[in-house]
Design goal:
Blueprint (H helix, E strand, L loop, with lengths): L2 H28 L9 H4 L5 H24 L5 H22 L5 H20 L9 H6 L6
Helix pairs in contact: 1-3, 1-5, 3-4, 4-5
């Protein structure tokens, strides 16, 4: 398996995980008491569990599902969609950590998943390739050593 195929496969796995997590979490938050979280966690944030769940489902989950499907079907906008979805996931978790009075290991897992999605998107774009820039150095006469 070549490296570009490996990066794409890993990105598919992470995007699929993020999509399932965001959609499942959004639905879970919208169903009263289904996740077993006390209401005082969200009372001072200005949100309700239903409102937060709706945003998580539509905005975060929607972009994650779209990014996954575009990547799976090899559409031209797939990597852009994955960058947007990964950034959205990181932003969602950051805002959640700022607004909620509690911390969960899930915050670490999901922010890491968002960062992984961004990193894998860059890897798919060839950022990690060693030969990037060599042609430009040779063209402009940059010498090594």
């Amino acid at each position: 398996m070549n490296t570009s195929r490996l990066w794409r496969t890993l990105l598919l796995v992470v995007a699929g995980f993020n999509a399932l997590s965001a959609v499942g979490g959004g639905i879970g938050l919208m169903a009263p008491g289904s996740l077993g979280m006390p209401t005082w966690w969200i009372e001072e944030s200005g949100f309700t569990f239903f409102g937060a769940g709706l945003i998580l489902l539509i905005v975060v989950g929607g972009t994650q599902v779209l990014a996954f499907v575009l990547l799976l079907t090899r559409r031209p906008w797939a990597l852009f969609a994955n960058a947007v979805a990964g950034f959205g996931m990181v932003l969602w978790i950051y805002i959640e950590v700022v607004l909620l009075p509690v911390y969960s290991i899930l915050h670490t897992i999901y922010i890491a998943a968002g960062i992984a999605q961004l990193a894998l998107t860059f890897a798919c774009l060839g950022v990690l390739r060693r030969d990037v820039g060599i042609e430009q150095k040779q063209r402009y006469g940059v010498r090594r050593g």
